[in-house]
Write a structure and sequence with these properties.
Elements: H1 3-27, E1 54-57, E2 67-69, E3 111-118, H2 123-134, E4 139-145, E5 150-155, H3 162-172, E6 177-179, H4 193-208, H5 212-239, H6 246-259, H7 263-295, E7 301-305, E8 311-315, E9 324-327, E10 337-341, E11 344-347, H8 349-352, E12 358-360, E13 365-366, E14 371-372, E15 377-381, H9 389-401, H10 406-437, H11 440-452, H12 457-476, E16 479-481, H13 484-490, E17 495-499, H14 500-504, E18 510-516, H15 524-535, H16 541-549, E19 559-563, E20 567-572, E21 575-580, H17 582-587, E22 602-608, E23 611-619, H18 626-635, E24 639-643, H19 648-658, E25 662-664, H20 669-683, E26 686-690, H21 696-701, E27 704-708, H22 713-718, E28 721-723, H23 730-764, H24 770-788
Parallel strand pairs: 1-2, 17-24, 17-26, 24-25, 26-27, 27-28
Antiparallel strand pairs: 3-5, 3-6, 4-5, 7-8, 7-9, 9-15, 10-13, 10-15, 11-12, 11-14, 16-28, 18-23, 19-20, 20-21, 21-22, 22-23
Helix pairs in contact: 1-9, 2-3, 2-12, 4-5, 4-7, 5-6, 5-7, 6-7, 6-11, 7-12, 7-24, 9-12, 10-11, 10-12, 11-23, 11-24, 12-23, 12-24, 13-23, 15-16, 23-24
């Protein structure tokens, strides 16, 4: 990657995270409005077409005032082949659009607060907390993310409800503490290893050594030492009217065992329940830590350079804008900044997924999170820690975790039905066979095993953890999923529909040939100068390529008149010059008999005083990984398609080179949406990948919208997935991650329900004991957690 490309990648990544912040604000009902900067010096209230009047065979933003073959009605007088907005100097007011993507949900208005839930150890309890908090008056929306322990409450005044929220949380799980953002977390409480060891010792002493009254005393001591938290929380739940949480069920099952004389099993089940819970908590915490370590690149300290040249180690949060910091070889760049001294290479893989180190020198930007591989660098801080890239990446992943997939919401609803049903079956198992056979001890014992396995923690815990790990796995590869719902929707996609310029191609237009007409009596340099004069006010990539190719002075224009969808009619030196597409010249009666186009390229035609002067051939280059990415997508059983505003010949040439299966060319924005609908009806759910402002409506209309990180902010905002490194190989990688998340979550569901059902059947047959029931509860939950964490190591190649 070149230094110039690295700057683009850095800028793209930063804009990606900014745009994701905008999405978050919109979902949190903060009104955001912006448009991509076009560079024209004019005010545009739009997301689409230009008004420049030039002929461009491309899909990007213009600002040229030239003739573009594009996808929007720009009113410029030029024909543009692009999908983006212009910077032509005209005021556009297009209609707003709604995002109909399955991966987006609306939120009600209100203030949002994010609280941390310390000592939260039960996923089923977390779901119950969320449900009860959402029922409070004044709460418009509530999301509790067990994986990050974050509670997001949107309402009129969430802080005023904090005492009630705390009361709900502690009544459900007694050790849980709700910490406001401005409060410090307290010393971690929860289960202690000492309790388990002493309780286990007393249990073994009573089971193997003692007899009679001493044995009963030892067993009671072990039971209360191991189960006092469970019993206390169960009593609190009964007072609140909750009789279907795991604490109540475990208390009922073990007390029932005492009643029927199975004291050893009562204590043993409580012991192994606590042991299973202990290891489950640590497995969950380890999973949390692994996932967050993958995305949390925030530094603890920075080396600030003092005026005398010495360095001082300070907390990263204390560094201010314009501070100078020292970054040694092997260090991670702590804060966003600009290199003021030193030359080195930065490993940007953690930010953009790009494996090739990037060279930086004085004046280049350096994003936090990148690793300095070579020389010593001195950086001037441009963003404090809270605004740096590392913090925005972490925020984006946490925000994404709050957008839960449908399967997660289903499991939460299912759990509220599952537990009462199993408890009902347990009651019937104790009563009906007991009345018929009279063997009450056997059937009550069987019913107690049902109570032990009636908690759905394995389901409620493992499914969201799998998707959260999938989001973390994507972020490690430069793929930003804006929620588990985006991952879930991607599983159903059958067709990948892509924009051309900036998505399949690099978007770096360059003049390939300047061809004067045979009878024009004009040199190539003169033709290029004339085109540059017409393009001089533009910021469009096509215009820039012409201006870049023209290394000499060009004449001044007397006037420019734009022709919508065709090009420009200019007066230069008293002579009328046409610069645009074939349609413009034909409308003015120009004889084009000697003109032949170049397939796969863009032509800008020029005529003066009724005579064809020649044309300029401009071409884009296909991305290096495009062919391999197309092959991988088709190997995954996906249909590939391309939508573009380019000429059919240009589109066909690119499609033939890469093996793209479906091509739609010469499309306006509304045509793209229609084409997308046709492809959906033909093949099934579609994922659209684009990068332009004009791609935003199509991104919104797709089942899954994906934006290249190098694209326009409007496209990134409208997307469900953002590819930070803007390469096509991220598309099959994202599909692989989504399919992996679905596969592992289904494995967890089938395994958890299967084991619980098997133990119930074995219990009815008189084979299963309460010991096995404990494994079916906490043991299965722990195994499901370990299975979920495999998502972090999924292979995407």
């Amino acid at each position: 990657m070149t230094s110039q490309e690295s700057c683009k990648a850095a800028t793209a990544t930063e804009r990606t995270l900014h745009a994701h912040t905008h999405i978050t604000n919109i979902e949190n009902n903060t009104e955001c409005s912006h448009s991509a900067s076009c560079g024209c010096g004019h005010d545009h209230h739009h997301d689409n077409a230009c008004g420049c009047g030039h002929d461009h065979h491309h899909d990007d933003a213009c600002g040229c005032g030239h003739d573009h073959h594009h996808d929007d009605t720009c009113g410029c007088g030029h024909d543009h082949h692009h999908d983006d907005a212009c910077g032509c100097g005209h005021d556009h007011h297009p209609a707003h659009h709604e995002h109909h993507s399955a991966a987006h949900t609306s939120r009600k208005h209100g203030k949002q607060r994010v609280y941390t839930l310390q000592n939260l150890g039960c996923a089923h309890c977390a779901a119950e907390m969320q449900h009860q908090i959402s029922l409070l008056d004044g709460v418009h929306d509530c999301t509790l993310v067990f994986e990050t322990r974050q509670l997001r409450v949107t309402g009129d005044n969430p802080d005023a409800l904090l005492p009630r929220i705390r009361e709900i949380c502690t009544s459900i799980e007694g050790t849980t503490k709700v910490i406001a953002p401005e409060e410090d977390e307290e010393e971690a409480g929860g289960h202690t290893l000492a309790e388990l060891l002493i309780g286990a010792g007393l249990f073994l002493l009573g089971e193997l050594v003692l007899d009679g009254v001493p044995q009963v005393v030892a067993m009671l001591a072990a039971y209360f030492l191991l189960g006092w938290r469970v019993l206390l929380t169960a009593v609190r739940g009964i007072v609140k009217g909750r009789v279907f949480d795991e604490n109540f069920l475990m208390a009922l099952a073990t007390i029932g065992a005492w009643v029927i004389g199975a004291s050893d099993e009562a204590v043993g089940v409580m012991l192994f329940y606590r042991i299973g819970e202990y290891f489950e908590d640590r497995a969950v915490e380890r999973s949390r830590r692994q996932i967050m370590q993958a995305v949390d690149l925030r530094p603890e300290t920075v080396n600030r350079i003092l005026p005398d040249g010495s360095t001082q180690t300070i907390p990263a949060a204390d560094a201010q804008v314009d501070d100078l910091v020292l970054v040694r070889p092997g260090d991670r760049v702590p804060l966003d900044g600009v290199v003021v001294e030193g030359v080195s290479r930065l490993d940007t893989a953690a930010i953009t997924g790009e494996p090739v180190p990037v060279r930086v020198a004085p004046g280049d930007r350096a994003l936090s999170g990148c690793v300095n591989t070579d020389g010593v660098l001195r950086l001037r801080v441009t963003h404090v820690l809270a605004e740096s890239m590392v913090q925005r990446i972490l925020d984006s992943v946490e925000n994404a975790a709050a957008r839960k997939p449908k399967i997660d919401r289903f499991i939460t609803r299912f759990s509220r039905v599952y537990t009462p049903v199993v408890v009902g079956i347990a009651a019937l198992t104790a009563l009906v066979p007991g009345l018929i056979t009279g063997d009450w001890a056997h059937w009550v014992y069987t019913a107690l095993t049902f109570l032990v396995i009636s908690c759905p923690c394995a389901l409620v815990l493992s499914v969201p953890l799998t998707y959260f790990a999938g989001i973390g796995a994507g972020s490690k590869r430069g793929i930003l999923f804006k929620g588990g719902v985006s991952l879930e929707a991607l599983n159903d996609v059958k067709t990948i529909v892509m924009d051309k310029t900036g998505t399949i191609t690099r978007g770096n237009f360059a003049v390939q040939q300047v061809i004067p007409a045979t009878d024009a009596n004009m040199e190539a340099v003169e033709l290029l100068q004339l085109a540059a004069a017409c393009e001089s006010a533009s910021t469009h990539p096509i215009a820039k390529s012409i201006l870049a190719a023209c290394q000499t002075d060009y004449p001044a224009t007397d006037s420019i008149r734009e022709q919508a969808g065709e090009g420009i009619e200019a007066v230069i030196g008293g002579k009328t010059v046409l610069c645009g597409n074939r349609k413009l010249l034909e409308r003015h009666g120009i004889n084009l008999a000697g003109f032949t186009g170049t397939p796969g390229s863009t032509e800008v035609l020029l005529a003066q005083d009724g005579q064809l002067l020649g044309h300029i051939v401009i071409a884009d280059t296909v991305k290096a990984d495009a062919k391999q990415a197309m092959d991988r997508m088709q190997a995954q059983g996906l249909t590939t398609a391309m939508l573009t505003g380019d000429a059919q010949e240009t589109a066909d040439a690119v499609a033939h080179e890469l093996g793209i299966q479906e091509v739609r060319a010469r499309l306006l924005p509304e045509d793209k949406l229609t084409a997308l609908t046709e492809l959906r009806e033909k093949h099934g759910a579609v994922m659209f990948v684009g990068d332009g402002i004009n791609d935003a409506p199509v991104l919104a209309g797709a089942d899954v919208g994906a934006a290249m990180g190098s694209g326009a902010d409007a496209a990134i905002e409208a997307a469900d997935v953002v590819f930070m490194n803007a390469d096509l190989s991220s598309i099959p990688a994202s599909v692989q991650i989504a399919r992996g998340a679905q596969r592992i979550s289904r494995q967890n569901i089938i395994f958890a329900l299967g084991v619980k059902l098997l133990v119930m059947v074995l219990g009815l047959a008189g084979i299963a004991s309460m010991w096995l029931a404990v494994f079916a509860d906490t043991g299965v939950a722990m195994l499901c957690v370990l299975n979920s964490i495999r998502m972090l190591y999924i292979k995407t190649e």
